[in-house]
Design goal:
With 116 residues, this protein is of the alpha+beta class. It contains 4 helices and 5 strands. It starts with a helix and ends with a strand.
Length: 116
C-alpha cells in the first residue's frame, strides 16, 4: 500500500508540475503552448495594467483556462506597491480590472515590490 501511495503522490506531483508549465495535454500527448502568442484577453489585461501601473518593472498575464478567458494568472512587480500590504496590492489590481473580472471564473494575483 505504501508503494502505491508513493506512486500516486508522485503522479499527482508530476501532474501539478505539468499544469504550472507551458505544456498542454491534448489527446494524451504533451505539447507546448507557444507563450510568445498572447490571447486577446491577455493583451487586454496587460494594456489595462500597464496604464494603471506605469512604473511596473515586470508584468506577466497568462490565461490559465486553456484560452477561453475564464481564469488568469497575473504577476506584477511595481514600485507603486511599496509600503502597501499584500492585500492592498491585490485590491489595487482588482480595482484596475473591475470590469474584466465580472466575466471571469477566477484570478490568481502575485504582486511584489522591485528589489533595489
Amino acid at each position: 500500500m505504501l508503494a502505491r501511495t508513493c506512486s500516486l503522490t508522485s503522479g499527482v506531483t508530476s501532474a501539478l508540475r505539468l499544469l504550472r508549465s507551458d505544456q498542454v495535454v491534448v489527446s494524451g500527448h504533451v505539447t507546448r503552448r507557444c507563450l510568445c502568442t498572447q490571447t486577446d484577453g491577455e493583451i487586454r489585461i496587460v494594456e489595462i495594467l500597464k496604464e494603471k501601473f506605469p512604473l511596473a518593472s515586470s508584468l506577466k498575464v497568462v490565461d490559465i483556462s486553456g484560452g477561453c478567458g475564464a481564469m488568469y494568472e497575473i504577476h506584477i512587480e511595481s514600485s507603486e506597491f511599496k509600503g502597501k500590504r499584500t492585500i492592498q496590492q491585490h485590491q489595487l489590481v482588482n480595482q484596475a480590472l473591475k470590469e474584466e473580472i465580472q466575466g471571469m471564473h477566477g484570478l490568481r494575483i502575485f504582486t511584489d515590490v522591485p528589489k533595489q
